[in-house]
Design goal:
heterodimer; A: about 60 residues; mainly alpha; B: about 240 residues; globular
């Protein structure tokens, strides 16, 4: 196991490369997912409030 | 045909249907790629174990350029046909491309220190990829520089197209100039000069990264479409 982590003495260079890839790829996935969920929820709530008070919504436009 | 899928709602229906498949296949290829890269493939006779950095570095470099090329094509389509979906594809792709460009530079640096004895040299290949990274950052900054995203789209698309000149410079930098970076060994006229045992992890990782781009790209596209709907709803101009 230790041998695997040491990677012939190059572990300090190999693992950060894989670690950074894992971290950044997971990071961009999570951020993209969160922003998608937030915006889609906002679309729904805007549509709901518009259905509830169409006259009010018309007033804010004009 | 093209117009049928250029409709954002219809496009998203297709994209959402393929998302579970691309996401699942991403994990599958990533698993197979990591197994090949870390366990099944041998150490290189010259580079030793550091050859394993290549299984992150080479696919990242390929993604950095492929995604930039996609942005340039989408930007051209957006400028010529003024289609909002082309614009959204370019916008959604940029951060993913920037991540892969950064990973390419970082993994290259981590390989360079033990193998070349330096983290960085200003040779043509490394410098042109660094310029690619700055192009991504500039493109993203320009997109977000205006309150109304529609205003930033055109200058950003022009920047993306002008910056595309850098792609052939990156590709041929190792032939045009005397670089410390090695010339191409995968894409060659007489076939790849890489052992099959090392070709397999490279291929798996490249496929995994491409599927990752498609999957996360769909998430980001959905966010872009929702963002446009929010603006329309707030302006009271919605037609759906």
């Amino acid at each position: 196991m230790n041998e695997f982590i040491e990677m012939g003495g190059y572990g300090a260079f190999i693992w950060p490369a894989y670690g950074a890839a894992a971290l950044l790829m997971a990071g961009v996935t999570i951020l993209s997912w969160k922003s998608m969920r937030q915006r889609e929820a906002l679309v729904e709530s805007l549509r709901a409030s518009r259905r509830k008070a169409p006259d009010e919504a018309m007033e804010t436009i004009s | 045909m093209m117009h049928r899928f250029a409709n954002p709602t219809r496009f998203m229906r297709v994209a959402n249907a393929i998302l579970p498949w691309t996401a699942g296949l991403t994990l599958l290829f990533l698993g197979a790629g990591l197994y090949q890269a870390l366990f099944a493939s041998p150490a290189d006779y010259q580079q030793g174990e550091t050859v394993r950095i290549m299984y992150v570095h080479v696919p990242s470099a390929y993604m950095a350029m492929m995604i930039y090329a996609s942005i340039a094509v989408a930007s051209a389509a957006s400028l010529i046909w003024k289609h909002p979906l082309a614009d959204m594809i370019a916008r959604a792709s940029a951060p993913i491309g920037a991540v892969f460009t950064f990973l390419c530079l970082l993994s290259g640096s981590l390989w360079g220190q033990p193998m070349w004895g330096t983290w960085w040299v200003w040779d043509a290949r490394l410098t042109s990829v660094l310029i690619l990274f700055f192009l991504y950052l500039g493109y993203i900054a320009l997109l977000n520089a205006f309150d109304d995203p529609a205003r930033g789209a055109k200058p950003a698309a022009i920047l993306a197209l002008v910056g595309a000149v850098n792609l052939p410079v990156i590709k041929f930098s190792v032939d045009w100039w005397n670089t410390l970076h090695q010339p191409a060994s995968l894409v060659k006229m007489d076939g790849p000069a890489v052992d099959p045992a090392m070709l397999l992890p490279l291929l798996y990782m490249a496929v995994a990264f491409t599927l990752f781009y498609i999957s996360v790209g769909i998430l980001r596209l959905r966010a872009e479409i929702a963002g446009a709907r929010i603006r329309n709803l707030r302006l009271g101009m919605t037609h759906d």
